[in-house]
Design goal:
Shape: globular
Structural class: alpha+beta
Bound molecules: flavin-adenine dinucleotide
CATH topology of the largest domain: Butyryl-CoA Dehydrogenase, subunit A, domain 3
CATH class of the largest domain: Mainly Alpha
CATH architecture of the largest domain: Up-down Bundle
Radius of gyration: 21 Å
Helix content: 40-55%
CATH superfamily of the largest domain: Butyryl-CoA Dehydrogenase, subunit A, domain 3
């Protein structure tokens, strides 16, 4: 087992971090205060290649592996977890699922503008009354000749307020429960499709989250992704990878919180010496570091297993490991960011210091893309199904 990154992987890491620090770093206060996403971000990320890391070169992507996706998400999250979240919803949730599940014609039409950042992508599953219980969605898609008519409301959709291309889940046969769900690509501008209110969030500000409405919205039958009533297969095919990439965002956030804490612990003096001299501060730093490294090893291993699984590897082991990676990395990020605030004392609680932003951002990782509780249910289900490790 090789734990060293290759020179190419390190180059990718460095390129993304350098770009994000230079272009996004100076904007972070505005992003947070005004809940503002820099309008050029998607195009710039597209030029960098960061929106199509795992997308086939035939559609403009880099065609790299899951670990490369992880490295990119980690470095974006290190500079801005919120903007990294938006980039991830675009490239991982939207483009990634289109690549895995859509017809050649749909891939040729929708992937190039997503990869270049010309168009913004989103994935819409959650509804006001259906979060963890995703199978309970009520958005309806009725087949009428050459199109489906969509009606319903989606909730908490990352990039929803600005999205041009949305992968939407709807019920095509409500009486069949989970076997009656289908996936569609909906474009901004389709009649009856509109973005509802933008939500005001405690953290991840800058990543626009909102409601989407479908009122007698006709979607061409050709925009069905996968087969009719097979939407759950579309949903689950990429879930492991989605969880691993989400864990990568937690790693970036954790690294940023630790770096800020180390700097502060060396600079801030109390009782005539740097607070880093005090053993209780040292214990916090050591614990933060150990959690971070454990989360990183788990996430990278899951990424390597996911790459193997793409080529026919071990499904169940991957599912439980991917869920464990995001469960652990998210809880670690929350703990690390909380300790970073504590190390900064009163200043850490003030808006001028960035650790409080990381603390607010971190909480989302325990809720979005499946909650901590649901991740535990998945791990336990996989363990019990097999009966042994
Ligand atoms: C900022 C943000 C961005 C998001 N982006 C997207 C997106 O791009 N696309 C999208 O489709 N969705 C998105 N979501 C939605 C997200 O996936 C849901 O919020 C999440 O799945 C939880 O659903 P819920 O909020 O309705 O909570 P609920 O499901 O109502 O859960 C409430 C509480 O009950 C617990 N709970 C529920 N069921 C069980 C159970 N069986 N056992 C034990 N505990 C349980 C939960 O863990 C939680 O603690 C986003 C959410 C946020 C906040």
């Amino acid at each position: 087992m090789d734990f060293e990154l290759t020179p190419e992987q390190m180059q990718l890491q460095e390129a993304v971090y350098k770009w994000a620090s230079r272009e996004l770093g100076p904007l972070l206060e505005k992003v947070d205060e005004q809940d503002w996403l820099p309008p050029e971000m998607f195009r710039q990320l597209g030029e960098l290649g960061a929106l199509g890391v795992a997308i086939d070169p035939a559609y403009g992507g880099l065609g790299l592996d899951v670990l490369a996706e992880v490295l990119v998400a980690e470095q974006l999250g290190r500079v801005s977890p919120a903007l990294g979240l938006s980039a991830g919803a675009h490239s991982n949730l939207c483009a990634g699922n289109i690549q895995r599940n859509a017809s050649e014609a749909l891939k040729a039409k929708y992937l190039p503008p997503l990869v270049s950042g010309e168009k913004v992508g989103a994935l819409a599953l959650t509804e006001p009354g259906a979060g963890s219980d995703a199978m309970a969605i009520t958005t309806r898609a009725q087949h009428q000749g050459d199109h489906y008519l969509l009606n319903g409301t989606k909730m908490f959709i990352t990039n929803g307020p600005i999205a041009d291309i949305v992968l939407v889940y709807a019920k095509t046969a409500p009486e069949r429960g989970p076997q009656g769900i289908s996936a569609f690509i909906v474009e901004k501008g389709f009649p009856g499709f509109s973005a509802g209110r933008k939500l005001k969030k405690a953290g991840m500000r800058g990543s626009p989250t909102g409601e989407l409405r479908f009122e007698d919205c006709p979607v061409p039958a050709a925009n069905l992704v996968g087969l009719e009533n097979q939407g759950v297969a579309v949903m689950t095919r990429g879930l492991d990878i989605e969880r691993i990439v989400c864990a990568a965002g937690c790693l970036g956030l954790s690294q940023a919180a630790i770096d800020l804490s180390l700097k502060y612990a060396r600079e801030r003096e109390q009782f005539g010496r740097p607070i880093g001299d005090f053993q209780m501060i040292q214990a916090k730093l050591a614990q933060m570091y150990a959690l971070y490294e454990a989360a990183r090893s788990l996430t990278y291993r899951a990424a390597m297993l996911a790459e193997g699984a793409k080529r026919g590897g071990k499904g169940t082991e991957l599912t439980r490991l991917a869920a464990a990676a995001v469960l652990f990395a998210a809880e670690a990020a929350s703990h690390i960011a909380g300790e970073a605030v504590q190390i900064h004392g009163g200043y850490g609680y003030c808006l001028e210091f960035p650790v409080q932003r990381l603390w607010r951002d971190a909480k989302l990782f325990e809720i979005g893309a499946g909650t901590t509780e649901i991740r535990k249910l998945i791990i336990a289900r996989e363990l019990l199904r097999k009966g042994s490790l």
